[in-house]
Amino acid sequence: xTWLLITSKTRPMVLDQYVAVAxxxxxxxxWFVGRFVRATGPIxxxxxxxxxxxxxxxxxxxxxxxxxKVAAERRFPAHHLxxxxxxxxxxxxxxxxxxxxxxxxxxxxxxxxxWAVANLWPDTATPVSAPHLMPFNDFTPRNCMPxxxxxxxxxxxxxxxKGPRLLxxxxxxxxxxxxxxxxxxxxxxGTDIVTGVVFTLTIEVALRSQARGWDRSGIRLALYGATVxxxxxxxxxxxxxxxxxxxxxxxxxVLLAMASVIYGYVRTTRxxxxxxxxxxxxxxxxxxxx
Length: 290
Hints:
A two-stranded antiparallel sheet has the order 1-2. Helix 8 (about 150-160) runs antiparallel to helix 9. Helices cover about 65% and strands about 0% of the residues. The chain has helices at about 1-10, 15-20, 30-55, 55-65, 70-75, 80-100, 105, 150-160, 165-185, 190-210, 215-240, 240-245, 245-270; strands spanning about 15, 135. It is mostly helical. The chain is globular and about 70 Å long. The protein contains 13 helices and two strands; from the N terminus they run αβααααααβαααααα. It has one domain.
């Protein structure tokens, strides 16, 4: 107890206990996927590890497709993946500083060493008990909330939708495997994934609105997405026990909040698509009756 008191005053604190307790409302997906990935053996682990570390390669491929006509047209598209990637990279670390979380493999696993609460991940779910701020070392990155790997993979998925079938398949594959890696390797909680999706869609619709001359419907959705994102962060921080105690209420509410942003994004962006009108059919000349 004396050691904890001393370290808590000299070491930076993290919010992992709050996020881990709140994650019970989502069924502790990192623990579940972690056991699944381990069961796949080295083949599954190597595949997911390759996808996780080669995120930039996927971004380059999609960006190359979007910017393939720049040289010929001598102008960039009004909106492309690079813009979204840069804004995600600029805003994400700022949130890390005000919402520090290290991830289950560190806070509850072997990689955390003596700083971990216990060696629980991925075999034993965290106990539902009142969370506290916990001290942690200086060198482990606080890069969980939101999951920027999820955010970037979501952006890749979105921007691959307008490409050929192979590119669309590639974008979906990269998103699914990235989610499997972030959860299965214990780098993120389920709450990080949810906020990562909301984070990306909010940025994406704001940038698309700006490219359209600050479209009002897009700005409204961006404000709504920012509100949902903030509400989720506050709920994970101040209502974790309520969330864990009522998973059949808060779990669907969290997913519904994310789904509402997804629905709003799809609905808004579809309205921006140019509508093709069917060609007018002219009646064929009929022979005159004599």
